[in-house]
Amino acid sequence: MDHTQKDERLRERLLPEIDAFKHSRQTLQLATRDSDGIPNASYSPFALTEAGFYILVSDIARHGKNLKDSSQVSVMLLEDESEAKTVFARRRLTFDVTAEAIARDSAEFEAGVNALAQRFGDMPKGLAQLADFNLYRLTPKQGLYVKGFGQAFALSGSELLDIQWQKDGHRGDSSKLESSVSAAAPARP
């Protein structure tokens, strides 16, 4: 089997797996920072659409204030401990994202809240009526999917469909990549 065929098999196997993993999670972990650069870890329920991840966050929450101070955020979708083969290598999907507050009077605000309501019932619609709750769209710029020990795959490209096996670990040097796969598939956030 030549290199191109191996790349295609890797792409065909991983892209559906990554997509299924994204849709199997209900919450994402947020890493935000305040205006002084002080980090904060938190979480939020999310809805995933072709536009990105949507979250509803209160200004009263520390991460709500942080999202107003900095649009650069890291998010992680994480396999539950009870599902993992070992807690030392839980499956996870991380993204560097840009957070953007969505105007309340926009069609996108209504669509984002409706996407959340489809997943979680009426509660998001009630929260969206509260003055301190804001809807944010989190747009992924690059990502990393970790399946287990020695199985980390960088996601890049305009639609995050380029997959690179990180042979030397999570912060791999592109000159040491085992495999680079560019996919021509429908857009996914």
UniProtKB/TrEMBL annotation:
InterPro entries: F420H2_bilvrd_red/Heme_oxyg, HutZ, Pyridox_Oxase_N, Split_barrel_FMN-bd. The keyword Nucleotidyltransferase does not apply. The keyword Oxidoreductase applies. It holds the Pfam family PNPOx_N. Signal peptide: none annotated. Residues 15-146 form the Pyridoxamine 5'-phosphate oxidase N-terminal domain. Residues 169-189 are annotated as: Disordered. Keywords: Oxidoreductase. PANTHER family: HEME OXYGENASE HI_0854-RELATED. NCBIfam families: heme_HutZ. This is Pyridoxamine 5'-phosphate oxidase.
